[in-house]
Structures are given as C-alpha cells and as structure tokens.
C-alpha cells in the first residue's frame, strides 16, 4: 500500500511538471505567433519546420501540406525573402527538405530563394542550427501553432529573435496523437534548455544571401 501511495505521488508530480511546462511554453510565446498575415512582421528568412509528405497509410500529410502553403503565402506576399527548410534526411529514402523544396519550386518559388538544412532532426536542432550554421539573428518560423510555440521558446533561450506564422491546423481527430506527444515534447524542450542541449550536428557555416 505504501508503495502504491509513493507511485501515486510520483505520478502526480510528473503530471504537474508536464502541465507547468506546457503552460510555460505557451506563455513565453504569447503575442509572437500570428494567424493573420497582415499582422505578421516582415523578416528576411522564414524557417519551415520539417514534416514528411506522405503518412504511413499513403495519404498526403496535412501538416506538411499546410506548412508548404503557409510558406508560399508568406513568400508571395513579401513577408519573407528567403525560405530555410529544416528537416530529417537520415535515410536515403527519406528527405524532408528536398521534398519541400521541389514542391515550392513547382508553386513558383525560385530555387535561389530556398536553402536546405538536412540536419533538422528535432525542433531544437532546426532552431539552433538556424543561428549557428545559417547565421540568423531573427526569423519567421512556419508550422502549426502548437509547434510554433515550442520553437519560439527554444529560439528565445538560444538568443534568437523569432516570430511565427501559424499554418492551418488539422482536425482534432486527425491530430490527436500528435497533440498528446506535444505535451511530452514540451517537457523535453524545457529540460533541454535547462541542460543546454545542443544539436546533434553542427558543421560549416552557410550564408543566406
């Protein structure tokens, strides 16, 4: 019985920690994410946070689709001049940045306005590499709101000035598992900041001209 009580207390503490981390990240990102393009400040570079184009059941990933559309909208309306795509390219048959690039070019974005970061394995990697590899001091992050908030929290803690444009979100049913994982991802983000976690890879600097 005593052991059960201890486990219950531990569970309550962990749950409270998750809730507090979620609140902290939303609070830190307050007034820095935008749904309306008219209110969004201009920036030289927009950072797309990667996503796979095709889901495991063979359908187009709506997170991908809406981020792609949002990035194109910002570029077309001169809210950003260049697009940095950061995503996973850990396997030969999986290349998030190049897929985004191909689709952006099809929409009409010149190849010269697109830059790729193949080592954006995590949001932290994408944000920190934007500063340390691509030399950014400010940027517009492009993803869904829940993701943008976490990215802004990380950016602030690595001394990077960031705002974000919220791509269209998916339905609650479609994104249920992702939203649950987000609570854990936010907790990990806070821990990463506390321990000063760094990207898996850095490397040579790239100038976005």
From TrEMBL:
Tell me the Pfam families matching this sequence.
DUF218
What transmembrane ranges does the database entry give? none
- Domain (DUF218) ranges: 47-184
Query: What species does this protein belong to?
Result: Mesoflavibacter zeaxanthinifaciens subsp. sabulilitoris
Source organism superkingdom: Bacteria
Q: Which InterPro entries match?
A: Cell_Envelope_Assoc, DUF218
Q: Mind telling me what this protein is named?
A: Protein SanA
GO CC, sorted alphabetically, is: plasma membrane
- Which CDD domains does this entry report, sorted A to Z? YdcF-like (cd06259)
């Amino acid at each position: 019985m005593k052991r059960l009580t201890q486990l219950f207390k531990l569970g309550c503490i962990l749950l409270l920690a998750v809730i507090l981390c979620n609140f902290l990240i939303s609070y830190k990102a307050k007034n820095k994410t935008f749904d309306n393009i008219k209110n969004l400040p201009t920036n030289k570079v927009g950072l797309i946070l990667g996503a796979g184009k095709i889901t495991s059941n063979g359908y187009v990933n709506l997170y991908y689709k809406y981020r792609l559309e949002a990035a194109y909208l910002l570029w077309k309306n001169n809210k950003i001049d260049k697009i940095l795509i950061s995503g996973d390219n850990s396997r030969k048959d999986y290349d998030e940045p190049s897929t985004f690039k191909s689709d952006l070019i099809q929409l009409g974005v010149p190849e010269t306005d697109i830059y790729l970061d193949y080592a954006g394995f995590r949001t932290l990697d994408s944000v920190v590499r934007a500063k340390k590899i691509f030399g950014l001091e400010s940027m517009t992050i492009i993803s869904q709101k829940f993701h943008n908030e976490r990215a802004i929290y990380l950016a602030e803690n690595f001394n990077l000035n960031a705002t974000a444009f919220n791509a269209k979100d998916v339905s609650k049913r479609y994104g249920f598992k992702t939203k649950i994982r987000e609570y854990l991802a936010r907790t990990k983000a806070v821990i990463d900041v506390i321990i000063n976690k760094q990207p898996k890879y850095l490397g040579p600097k790239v100038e976005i001209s």
